[in-house]
TrEMBL record:
<keyword id="KW-0560">Oxidoreductase</keyword>
<keyword id="KW-0862">Zinc</keyword>
<dbReference type="InterPro" id="IPR036291">
    <property type="entry name" value="NAD(P)-bd_dom_sf"/>
</dbReference>
<feature type="domain" description="Alcohol dehydrogenase-like C-terminal">
    <location>
        <begin position="193"/>
        <end position="316"/>
    </location>
</feature>
<dbReference type="Pfam" id="PF00107">
    <property type="entry name" value="ADH_zinc_N"/>
</dbReference>
<keyword id="KW-0963">Cytoplasm</keyword>
<dbReference type="GO" id="GO:0106321">
    <property type="term" value="F:S-(hydroxymethyl)glutathione dehydrogenase (NADP+) activity"/>
</dbReference>
<dbReference type="GO" id="GO:0008270">
    <property type="term" value="F:zinc ion binding"/>
</dbReference>
<dbReference type="GO" id="GO:0004022">
    <property type="term" value="F:alcohol dehydrogenase (NAD+) activity"/>
</dbReference>
<comment type="subunit">
    <text>Homodimer.</text>
</comment>
<dbReference type="GO" id="GO:0005829">
    <property type="term" value="C:cytosol"/>
</dbReference>
<keyword id="KW-0520">NAD</keyword>
<protein>
    <recommendedName>
        <fullName>S-(hydroxymethyl)glutathione dehydrogenase</fullName>
        <ecNumber>1.1.1.284</ecNumber>
    </recommendedName>
</protein>
<dbReference type="GO" id="GO:0106322">
    <property type="term" value="F:S-(hydroxymethyl)glutathione dehydrogenase (NAD+) activity"/>
</dbReference>
<dbReference type="InterPro" id="IPR013154">
    <property type="entry name" value="ADH-like_N"/>
</dbReference>
<dbReference type="InterPro" id="IPR011032">
    <property type="entry name" value="GroES-like_sf"/>
</dbReference>
<comment type="similarity">
    <text>Belongs to the zinc-containing alcohol dehydrogenase family. Class-III subfamily.</text>
</comment>
């Protein structure tokens, strides 16, 4: 391959500073070192977490950087020792690694991998603690790292969503909460993540799925819908009253610590479980009366829905190809990389679930 081992130049949207419009720049990308893979990203969606880091709310946010973590592309070249993928493979880069060897991977208790997290948290590659991106010699940080795996002929402009939002919602229900048939489920925040929770709850056989959002346009027919703005009582009380004592499972898919409290407190005494999915801003903390836990409610959280990236995302791609899970339905907008700032605006305007950007146009 002509570009193997070479520095290449690519277009990327660079976040120079928090909240300042992203700028499309020519970025030099160093060749992959041992164990690394260089991927040509063809499609990328925006997840709320990108807006959170760009907005300066992420304690791990580093600038300048190249954001984005819900994508699909083609392996361009590989470093020494890489055997799991080869140039030309279609891949979904995942921010949760799966090395298969560390204490976390071997535990059988979590999808969190300990191998590369320290490096990806500070925007560099593990081997030499350096970035592979630069503009005229100035390093540009990575964001959330990548690991890769091969998957069959799926439309990349759709399955990029399997890099974050859709697996997170489905897995929060199937892996983290393990919702049983007949359960009553409440979902706070009906963006892509919350709607994927609803989809997961439906397939798990939930008897009632109650969606809560301040944007009534997010009301889906398959769910009961509550807009907190329509009620004077605290939303947890509204839900307790609606459900004869509380829900069996609740999911916070917003990133708001007051709502996280409400999501716990709307759970049924004795057994209700609340799962935190939303990412809260730097410095924010959750609180509740310890009595809420003493009386049997359980507070949990999930990253990437508990899915292991390399071993389970290909399974999700297969499920998508067999039409067993929704993906296309969450794509409300398609734009180009050059229109990325408009895509962030759309995210805040309502009516937008996922906006997929094509990078080649
Ligand atoms: N844990 C993980 O692995 C993981 C993965 C993906 C996303 N996330 C996080 O999950 C959250 C949801 O992501 P998304 O991409 O679906 O976001 P989104 O912005 O598309 O959806 C959020 C929804 O919450 C609603 N909302 C906002 N404030 C509300 C309030 N006070 N009460 C009720 N509804 C309210 C909005 O109207 C919107 O519909 C974000 O915090 C994101 O960072 C976490
Ligand atoms: N950098 C933040 C944490 C952000 C966070 O919680 N990220 C989620 C994924 S959000 C995807 O849209 C996650 O998986 N966290 C586990 C991990 O990063 O290992 C902070 O420092 O507060
Ligand atoms: Zn995400
Ligand atoms: Zn590991």
């Amino acid at each position: 391959m002509a570009t193997q081992g070479q520095v290449i130049t690519c277009k990327a949207a660079v976040a120079w500073e928090p909240n300042k419009p992203l700028v499309i720049e020519d970025v030099q990308v160093a060749p992959p070192q041992a164990g690394e893979v260089r991927v040509k990203i063809l499609y990328t969606a925006l997840c709320h977490t990108d807006a959170y880091t760009w907005g300066g709310k992420d304690p791990e946010g580093l600038f300048p950087c190249i954001l984005g973590h819900e994508a699909a592309g083609i392996v361009e070249s590989v470093g020494e020792g890489v055997t799991i993928v080869q140039p030309g493979d279609h891949v979904i880069p995942c921010y949760q690694a799966e090395c298969g060897e560390c204490k976390f991977c071997k535990s059988g208790k979590t999808n969190l991998c300990g191998k590369v997290r320290a490096a990806t948290g500070v925007g560099v590659m593990m081997s030499d603690r350096k970035s592979r991106f630069s503009i005229n010699g100035k390093p540009i940080y990575h964001f959330m790292g990548t690991s890769t795996f091969s998957q069959p002929k799926a439309p990349l402009e759709k399955v990029c969503l399997l890099g974050c939002g859709v697996p997170t919602g489905l897995g929060a229900v199937w892996n983290t909460a393990k919702v049983e048939a007949g359960s009553i489920v409440a979902i706070f925040g009906l963006g892509t993540v919350g709607l994927a929770v609803a989809e997961g709850a439906k397939t798990a056989g939930a008897s009632r799925i109650i969606g809560i959002d301040i944007d009534s346009k997010k009301n889906l027919e398959s769910t009961e819908f509550v807009n907190p703005k329509d009620h004077e009582k605290p939303i947890q009380q509204v839900l307790v009253d609606l459900t004869d004592g509380g829900v069996d499972y609740s999911f916070e898919c917003i990133g708001n610590v007051s709502v996280m409290r409400a999501a716990l407190e709307c759970c049924h005494k004795g057994w209700g479980t609340s799962v935190i999915v939303g990412v809260a801003a730097s410095g924010q903390e959750i609180s509740t009366r310890p009595f809420q836990l003493v009386t049997g409610r359980v507070w949990k959280g999930t990253a990437f829905g508990g899915f292991k990236s390399r071993s389970q995302v290909p399974w999700l791609v297969e499920k998508y190809l067999k039409k067993e899970i929704k993906v296309d339905e969450y794509i409300t907008h398609t734009l180009t990389l050059g229109e990325i700032n408009k895509a962030f605006d759309l995210m805040h305007e309502g009516g937008c679930l996922r906006c997929v950007l094509s990078t080649d146009a």
